[in-house]
C-alpha cells in the first residue's frame, strides 16, 4: 500500500465514520439505553483488542450479555444478528484506531502472537468488516456444532482467517474495500431476511 493509498483509505474512513456518527448517533444512544435496562449493566462496554502494529486499544460495543459467558438476551441476539452491537465502532474508526475495512480486531492472545509472514496482518488497521468476517459471519453457530469449539477455532477458523487477512493486505485495492463493504451490507440483509422468513 503506497503513501497515496494510505491517505485515500484514511480519507474514506473519516468520511464514512463521520457520516455514520451523524446519522446513527441518536439510534446508538437509544440502543445503549435499551441494552442498559436489558442487561442491568451500562449498555456500552469497552474491550481490549489488538490494533495496528500489535498495539492494544479499546473497542466500543453495545452490551448483549447480562453476565460473562451467558447467552445473549433476545434483544442481544437481535443486535448481534444485524451487527448493531458494533455500531459504536464507527467512533473507533473516526479516532483512527480502526478502519472501515480491514482484518477484524482480535482479542489479546491471537493477533499479537502471529509469527513470520503472518505478522503482515498487523501492518494495517483492524476493520469493521473483512473477507474473513464475511466467510465466518455465522461463526458462533459454526462453533456450537463442534465437539471442541476452542480447538476447532484455534486449529481451523483462526488459521483460515489469518490466510484471508494476509491475502487482503497483499492485494489491497480501494475497489476491493468498496466491494467488501457492499457485500457486508447485502449479507446482513440476506441473513436476517432468511431468519425472519423462518420465524
Automatic annotation (TrEMBL):
Name used for this protein in its record: Sugar transferase
InterPro entries, per the entry: Bact_transf
Family note: Belongs to the bacterial sugar transferase family.
Domain Bacterial sugar transferase: 9-189
Keywords annotated in UniProt: Membrane, Transferase, Transmembrane, Transmembrane helix
TM regions (residue ranges): 12-37
Domain of life the protein comes from: Bacteria
GO MF annotation, one: transferase activity
Lineage: Bacteria, Pseudomonadati, Bacteroidota, Flavobacteriia, Flavobacteriales
Keyword Transmembrane helix: yes
Amino acid at each position: 500500500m503506497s503513501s497515496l493509498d494510505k491517505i485515500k483509505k484514511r480519507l474514506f474512513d473519516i468520511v464514512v465514520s463521520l457520516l455514520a456518527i451523524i446519522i446513527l448517533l441518536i439510534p446508538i444512544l437509544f440502543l445503549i439505553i435499551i441494552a442498559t435496562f436489558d442487561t442491568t449493566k451500562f449498555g456500552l462496554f469497552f474491550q481490549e483488542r489488538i490494533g495496528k502494529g500489535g498495539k492494544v486499544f479499546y473497542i466500543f460495543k453495545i452490551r448483549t450479555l447480562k453476565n460473562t459467558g451467558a447467552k445473549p438476551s433476545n434483544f442481544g441476539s437481535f443486535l448481534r444478528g444485524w451487527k448493531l452491537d458494533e455500531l459504536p465502532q464507527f467512533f473507533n474508526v473516526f479516532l483512527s484506531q480502526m478502519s472501515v475495512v480491514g482484518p477484524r480486531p482480535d482479542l489479546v492472545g491471537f493477533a499479537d502472537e502471529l509469527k513470520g509472514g503472518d505478522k503482515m496482518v498487523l501492518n494495517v488497521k483492524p476493520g469493521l468488516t473483512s473477507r474473513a468476517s464475511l466467510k465466518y459471519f455465522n461463526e458462533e453457530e459454526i462453533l456450537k456444532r463442534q465437539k471442541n469449539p476452542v480447538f476447532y477455532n484455534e486449529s481451523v477458523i483462526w488459521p483460515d482467517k489469518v490466510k484471508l487477512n494476509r491475502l487482503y493486505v497483499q492485494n489491497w485495492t480501494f475497489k476491493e474495500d468498496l466491494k467488501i463493504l457492499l457485500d457486508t451490507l447485502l449479507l446482513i440483509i440476506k441473513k436476517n431476511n432468511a431468519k425472519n422468513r423462518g420465524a
